[in-house]
Amino acid sequence: MSTVLPTVAPQARDVQSNDSEKGGLSPTISIASLRPPIELGTRRPFWRRPKQGLDSIATQASVFDVPETLEVYRPGPAYENAHRFDPDARWTWREEYAIVRKIDWRVMVWAFIMFFALDLDRLNISQANTDDFLQDLHMTTNDFNLGNSLFRLCFLIAELPSQLVSKRIGPDIWIPSQMVLWSLVSGGQYWLSGRASFLATRCLLGLMQGGFIPDVILYMSYYYTKTELPIRLAWFWVSNYMATLVGAFLATGILQLRQVTGRAGWRYLFLIEGVLTLLVGVASFFMMPPGPTQTKAWYRPNGWFNEREETIIVNRVLRDDPSKSDMHNRQGLTPKMMWSILKDWRMWPLYVLGLTFMIPVTPPQTYLTLLLRDLGFNTVQSNLLTVPSTVLGIVLLLVVSYISEIWDSRIGVIVVLQIWALPLLIALYTFNEHTSQWVYFVVITLITGFPDTHPIQVAWASTNSNSVGTRTVSASMYNMFVQTGSIVSSYVYRANDAPLYKRGNRALIGITVLNIVLYLFTYFFYREINTRRDSIWKSWSPQEQKRYLDTTTDKGSKKINFRFAY
Fold first, then answer.
1. Are 466 and 112 in contact (CB under 8 A)?
2. Confidence (pTM)
3. Phi/psi-derived region of residue 558, left when phi > 0, alpha when psi is between -120 and 50, beta in every other case
4. Chain segment 267-315, per-residue pLDDT in tens
5. Which of 47, 275, 360, 446 is most buried, judging by how many CB atoms fall within 10 Å of its CB?
6. pLDDT tens digits for 543-563?
7. Which residues of 524-559 are buried (b: 16+ CB within 10 A; e: fewer)?
8. Rounded to whole angstroms, how far apart are CA atoms 248 and 517?
């Protein structure tokens, strides 16, 4: 994981600027002058129990334990949880485990439900395809590709504006509003009449759903530490697979309404699932408090947490990452702040990986039901045959996420997706019209049941941001690149290349090899930065290190005492 020696609080950033990473600062800093260097975020791994027992102290070492750095990092009065900050607060593992379980039930479960609703509406277009959706609207595969591209383009365009709105008015207000808006459009697809209305609704859904995922991730970061968030994100993404799984069974029944009413079953699919999302969206207004110390409301007079629990939640998160107090949850970003964050070249390798890493498995995943129909399976069979890949995907997602935390490695685990996909894509490329449909099904199932490393990369980008402002923008930027990759993916399989998609699969093989090279580059990129910073940091005397902390205007991941995760 990334580590940080004390960073600078907002109120201490009004002194001289320097370009410390280039070595331009005369010998100046480590907290070694105060006591041995404190690495923030070095919490006990989640799978290990404390040796001293559950009633031993769980409070981690922090810059707040050192008088000289306490005032540098003390949360400002604008921080919404400042009244619960207490550098002398101590608590036991028993208390911490109980509170984390409580947060899981209150925050994580509802985040899971909201993401489930998003994916139910986002993925049901695939199930609609098994019910002669394209034929009913007199469209071709290329029209379908265009619709998917417009959806992702609008989703991409809405990412950053959505994050900025969420940061200004609060995710507790903006996220439920998004859900209500897109549920109305999703349900309205019942009345689709042709290509024009299909493309219009795809654009509207993209605009209204864009930014939802980084909004929820930012909201969850208010409650969880850096070591806890990746595993929660893994379970968060399980809802994506659950939506596919549940959606397949729902579609199996709902699409049969064509035989009962004479109207296309896909129309009822959009309408019913749109109504379900509307209900979740309305409920979210009541299920999302602004923050851990703001859970009381007229409909929840006692709140979720007592004063002791709020103190533990706030202090454990700040001890893990003091930068989380540098903005309050209703504070927007200025254009100057945004530009400074966008031009941070240290984050761009993660954005580039977001562009390419999912392309090898996205076309087979998107066209799974259509591929199954092309193989001769009927509507019911095609929907049910997506279940094995979904179950496999859930298992592998959780396995790689837990391994990443156990090994404390990002690239070493994330590259597994590419290694998994490469031989399967090569096999798919060798298939011809004489290949058994069941052999084809097995290979497609393994490809679409890939070990999804997306949650690890999202948490990786969040960890390497090292400030609330950077985290807000970088989450959107990363997801924008992911959506751009999805747009590229939608043009890999073309109608004139069906049904074997030889050209498309050859392109996917090449991109997979490229991704492996990009991961190797990113590994050495971050390792070199960390090595150079270590060299500069250790060359400074304790007094020089202290002076840097007191005077630097470096922010977020630019700080010389910050170490990138890789």
1. no
2. 0.81
3. alpha
4. 999 999 999 999 999 999 999 999 999 999 999 999 999 999 999 999 9
5. 360
6. 888 788 888 888 778 888 888
7. ebbeebbeebeebbeebeeebbbbbbbbbebbbbbb
8. 36
